[in-house]
TrEMBL record:
Residues 1-240 are annotated as: 2-C-methyl-D-erythritol 4-phosphate cytidylyltransferase. The record marks R160, K217 as: Positions MEP for the nucleophilic attack. It comes from Labrys miyagiensis. SUPFAM superfamilies: IpsF-like, Nucleotide-diphospho-sugar transferases. Gene3D superfamilies: 2-C-methyl-D-erythritol 2,4-cyclodiphosphate synthase, Spore Coat Polysaccharide Biosynthesis Protein SpsA, Chain A. It catalyses: 4-CDP-2-C-methyl-D-erythritol 2-phosphate = 2-C-methyl-D-erythritol 2,4-cyclic diphosphate + CMP; 2-C-methyl-D-erythritol 4-phosphate + CTP + H(+) = 4-CDP-2-C-methyl-D-erythritol + diphosphate. Pathway: Isoprenoid biosynthesis; isopentenyl diphosphate biosynthesis via DXP pathway; isopentenyl diphosphate from 1-deoxy-D-xylulose 5-phosphate: step 2/6; Isoprenoid biosynthesis; isopentenyl diphosphate biosynthesis via DXP pathway; isopentenyl diphosphate from 1-deoxy-D-xylulose 5-phosphate: step 4/6. Residues 241-393 form the 2-C-methyl-D-erythritol 2,4-cyclodiphosphate synthase domain. The gene is ispDF. This is Bifunctional enzyme IspD/IspF. It holds the Pfam family YgbB.
Amino acid sequence: MIDDTAKLRVAALIVAAGRGSRVGGSLPKQYRQLGGQSVLARTLALFERHPDIDSITTVIGPGDETLFQASAEGISKLAGFVTGGNTRQASCLAGLKALRAEKPDIVLLHDAARPFATPDLITRAIEAARRHDAAVPGLAVTDTIKQIDAEGFVTATPDRARLRSVQTPQAFAFDLILVSHLSAAAAGIGTLTDDGAVAEWAGHPLFIFEGETTNMKLTTESDFQHAEQFVSELAALGDVRTGTGFDVHAFTDGDHVWLNGLKIPHERALKGHSDADVGLHALTDAILGAIGDGDIGSHFPPSDPQWKGAASDRFLAHAVALVKARGGAIAHLDVTFLCEAPKIGPHREAMRARIAEIAGIPVDRVGVKATTTEQLGFTGRREGIAAMASATVRLPWH
């Protein structure tokens, strides 16, 4: 088990030794240009920027040294590179051996051809390894899967609810995955297609955490066409804005409160002209602040009787619509409650899901937290609830 009482040392091992034959051409796919950068350069930069990554080691193909050096320019966390083997499994083992002198606590093994993983995915991978020792990201399978025999006839239809398609970065306690790879190699097992399979073969429980739909692996020419479109869309939304919001509502008589779009039973209610959803009000102001378009009061004046008792999801949806009208997108929403009660923890995931639904964004782009004020001030005296929020918005450059 990983000792998490001290700061963990985390190494990233980028697997870039493949030739990418399904894409075609003489240039390995990890060195192809994508929006003015090589695929590998984009992948290395992702790990370079993450604050919890201490070092980056890359496994490259024989003769690719010059291509690699060009892609690795400016990567300060680079510990070096090692030449890979004939299979992905052999390349990963070569990289893990190179990391032995560093002795990291956790290693993340990531395909160079997945340049669109997010910092959030890396953070969750590290946490999953800390908790479970061996963990890989996975996505639920949406298509029905058929198992066939050598003649093409169906032999089984697995329950897709229990199936996952796995991605990288795959995260492990370093000693566990190193010993697993060494044992597999010693046993002559060399056809395992991912590091999770190596850990499974060695008898270790493997945990699946949620992956990302945008974390595509570039394998075919069609994948590169989609990736170019994706990069173009990101570049078009390069004006990144951050806004903040703050709201307060006092308690009054009642038996429930509205928080982040959920009706939560409580011994008191919140007083306000609308439904007094302090969380959604703060989020709405945060978005309006990011686009420089007034505040919630200017769009929905409390003096206007039409907003009496209105559901606050309308306010948040309006702010989101204003962003979309400018050709922009919501990148992230985060809200923190300051209150003694009700407890937010039991409702956190439902709140995240509701905000994501209103805003039309993935739930992994929503944060919900809560804290007390140690019984200080009006929230400490249980006189009301405060919420502060931030919104990150991407707009087109003009």
